[in-house]
């Protein structure tokens, strides 16, 4: 699909910076990315027009807000640096014939192309460092790979006018690593008013047909996310069902392990739901699990979307004892932590968390956490960074 995007406008300066056009490039399926969806909604609500360039997947299309359009690109084959080069070339070619006030790279793979277009046009460049890319799980034990990703990011991040990220720890690390101004921390929190985006969708009990407590793992099933330990832990947690709500490269392995352990009647794998359906779908879970393993700094510093989804749905959290996740669970007293690599540790925590008295205490604390972490607050920091970037180029 080819679109003619709006030309650069001078009216941005006359309207507080909120009247420009943004080319929003992202590696992945926009319709499945809750963070990108919220960002585009906030940008258009603030007066920007947005053209999204994404690698189209199989997710059902969501309705775009007024002022937004989308360009579907075919995902290249390959992985690692080869995939990076192919994606970078794809974005560069796709962005060649449009004009924009801001070139926004929604991830590292899109940054190089956006930086080149920003340099050519003299426009603003913004970047969402959604991961601590040189230190992701794929670079563990591979120092040359880590060096290559750090070199790649350094080349372009120093040209940006605003950088965003998901946690304080990653913001501090990026500022230290590259000598840049500390990035804007934009948490992956949901909107506080669920009625603005959500309908009344079936909960987990009706989707699975079970009437026992539900333990939920929301989101992607990938390596080093504690899935295997969680499945094995269910051997000792007889009084509950486990639901994986999502997809990912480890799903087939987890399903096979479930069968091998004779747990198929108590562990369920459900298709992912649209971002706007998450809150009402998961509201009847007894425990929400986020079990990233401490295999890399990216995991240690992360604040996963699912943590905030659980909080806003009123679901107590079992998290890995990682820096950022542990801080929120402890600060608000909304759950427990466990060692994601130890099924016994996970099982003990789950059994403790099924206790009604503890459930009541945590559920009474969850509203305060939900009020603290909202997209309304996070989006203001996002918009402030966008206006800051635009102002730097006027």
Notes on the structure:
There is one protein chain. This protein has 15 helices and 13 strands. The protein is of the alpha/beta class. The protein has two domains: 13-189 and 375-393, Rossmann fold (3-Layer(aba) Sandwich); 194-372, Glycogen Phosphorylase B (Rossmann fold, 3-Layer(aba) Sandwich). Strands 3-2-1-4-5-6-7 form a seven-stranded parallel β-sheet, sandwiched between helices. A six-stranded parallel β-sheet has the order 10-9-8-11-12-13, with helices on both faces. Strand 5 (124-129), helix 4 (143-157) and strand 6 form a beta-alpha-beta unit. It is globular, with a radius of gyration of 21 Å. The model is unreliable at 1-17 (pLDDT under 50).
Task: Show the helix and strand layout.
Blueprint: E1 21-26, H1 34-45, E2 49-55, E3 68-73, H2 80-94, E4 102-105, H3 108-121, E5 124-129, H4 143-157, E6 162-165, H5 168-178, E7 184-185, H6 204-208, E8 214-218, H7 227-233, E9 241-245, H8 251-260, E10 267-270, H9 278-282, E11 287-290, H10 297-300, H11 305-313, E12 317-320, H12 323-332, E13 335-338, H13 343-353, H14 356-372, H15 375-393
Parallel strand pairs: 1-2, 1-4, 2-3, 4-5, 5-6, 6-7, 8-9, 8-11, 9-10, 11-12, 12-13
The fourth-level CATH homologous superfamily of the largest domain is Glycogen Phosphorylase B
The helical percent reads: 40-55%
**SS content category:** alpha/beta
First-last Cα distance? 31 Å
The tally of helices reads 15
Basic shape: globular
Strand content is 15-25%
Let me know the number of strands.
13
The helix-strand sequence is: EHEEHEHEHEHEHEHEHEHEHHEHEHHH
CATH topology of the largest domain: Rossmann fold
Quaternary structure annotation: single chain
The unreliable regions are: 1-17
> What integer is the average pLDDT?
91
Largest sheet: 7 strands, parallel
* Name of the top-level CATH class of the largest domain: Alpha Beta
Gyration radius, to the nearest Å? 21 Å
> How does CATH name the architecture of the largest domain?
3-Layer(aba) Sandwich
For the biggest β-sheet, the strand order reads 3-2-1-4-5-6-7
Number of domains: 2
């Amino acid at each position: 699909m080819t679109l003619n995007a709006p030309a650069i406008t001078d009216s941005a300066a006359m309207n507080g910076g909120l009247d420009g056009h943004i080319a929003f490039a992202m590696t992945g399926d926009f319709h499945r990315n809750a963070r990108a969806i919220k960002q585009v909604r906030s940008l258009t609500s603030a007066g920007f027009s947005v053209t999204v360039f994404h690698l189209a997947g199989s997710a059902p299309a969501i309705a775009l807000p007024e002022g937004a359009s989308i360009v579907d690109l075919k995902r290249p084959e390959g992985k690692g640096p080869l995939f990076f080069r192919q994606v970078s070339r794809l974005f560069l070619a796709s962005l060649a014939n449009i004009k924009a006030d801001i070139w926004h790279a929604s991830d590292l793979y899109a940054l190089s192309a956006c930086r080149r277009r920003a340099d050519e046009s003299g426009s603003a460049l913004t970047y969402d460092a959604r991961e601590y890319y040189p230190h992701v799980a794929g670079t563990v034990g591979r120092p040359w790979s880590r060096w290559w990703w750090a070199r790649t990011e350094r080349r372009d991040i120093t040209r940006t006018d605003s950088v965003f990220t998901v946690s304080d720890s990653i913001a501090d690390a990026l500022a230290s690593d590259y000598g840049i101004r500390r990035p804007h921390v934009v948490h992956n929190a949901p909107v506080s008013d669920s009625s603005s985006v959500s309908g009344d969708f079936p909960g987990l009990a009706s989707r699975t047909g079970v009437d026992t407590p539900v333990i939920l793992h929301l989101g992607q099933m990938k390596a080093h996310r504690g899935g295997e330990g969680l499945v094995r832990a269910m051997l000792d947690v007889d009084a509950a069902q486990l639901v994986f709500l999502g997809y990912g490269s480890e799903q087939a392995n987890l399903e096979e392990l479930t069968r091998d352990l004779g747990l198929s009647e108590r562990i369920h794998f459900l298709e992912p739901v649209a971002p706007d359906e998450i809150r009402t779908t998961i509201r009847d879970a007894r425990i929400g699990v986020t079990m990233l393993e401490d295999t890399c700094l990216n995991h240690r510093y992360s604040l996963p979307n699912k943590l905030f989804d659980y909080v806003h749905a009123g679901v107590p959290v079992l998290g890995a004892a990682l820096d950022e996740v542990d801080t929120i669970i402890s600060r608000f007293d909304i759950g427990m932590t466990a060692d994601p690599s130890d099924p016994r540790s996970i099982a003990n925590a789950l059994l403790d968390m099924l206790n009604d008295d503890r459930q009541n205490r945590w559920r009474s604390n969850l509203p305060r956490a939900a009020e603290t972490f909202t997209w309304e607050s996070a989006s203001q920091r996002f918009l402030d960074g966008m206006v800051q970037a635009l102002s730097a180029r006027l």
